[in-house]
């Protein structure tokens, strides 16, 4: 589906906490977009972030940055949602999903009241479930409601592999797919370094059983926990990931990025948002990349989908 382009390269961010502010800073620092609006329930916070960012303008390309409200969504190319509650001690992931689903419904309703015709990008956790909520409430086509998915998990995976093998991370090609969370999985069968399969770099023939590779994946999966233990929250990595995704959309790059998108029979999976490599351009998700997964990987992806489908059904009730 072709979306009428506004040609403004305008981005609205809903939520100016750590993630939203880090994302806004990444956009400014990389010169992505031309018009940036910050929305937050705490209007003074949004105003403060806008002022702080504007004071860096002499060091970067010109960009209009301001605090605003939902009426700014009318002519925006993208609305990026980072707002939501954090998980409290003793709270389950379902508790968090239920709480944030209510917040998400309210935000998306406000966005759509203003005749929004662009792309919604969701980063609030649990991101796969909440992206499905945004899709359900917005009424937009599935390709225009995208979650940040496993973009950060994939980046962590590539980085840790690059550290292990002492290779530039930009030359490591690997994916984490499925849930952005505990049931995610590494696609070992498709890991390559400079086009060379990983098992040729001295791993066991069954890469997934190599102790060092197992440790790398565990460090990827548990990275957020490790960061939160040390500094309270994780936000720089996802801020940069969201900026990368925004650039692919605003500049019509047709880039392959691991985003959360709606499955409609791909891999034998129906009606659930999951992280998967997809081609992303100005219209959102152009198409999903269907990797030739081995049996173990496919089973793990189906298990991840089952967990997310059950959680999504509960919050959509």
TrEMBL record:
Annotated ranges, domain Lactate/malate dehydrogenase N-terminal: 10-147
Catalytic class of the enzyme: oxidoreductase
Assembly, per entry: Homotetramer.
Organism name: Natronobacillus azotifigens
Pathway membership, UniProt: Fermentation; pyruvate fermentation to lactate; (S)-lactate from pyruvate: step 1/1
Catalysis performed (reactions): (S)-lactate + NAD(+) = pyruvate + NADH + H(+)
Annotated positions binding NAD(+): 15-20, 40, 45, 70, 84-85, 100, 123-125, 148
Residues with PTM Phosphotyrosine: 225
Active site residues according to the UniProt entry: 180
Binding sites annotated in the UniProt record for substrate: 87, 93, 125-128, 153-156
Cellular-component GO terms for this entry: cytoplasm
Regulation: Allosterically activated by fructose 1,6-bisphosphate (FBP).
Main location (coarse class): cytoplasm
Family, as annotated: Belongs to the LDH/MDH superfamily. LDH family.
Sequence positions that bind beta-D-fructose 1,6-bisphosphate: 158, 173
UniProt superkingdom: Bacteria
Descriptive protein name: L-lactate dehydrogenase
Molecular function GO terms recorded: L-lactate dehydrogenase (NAD+) activity
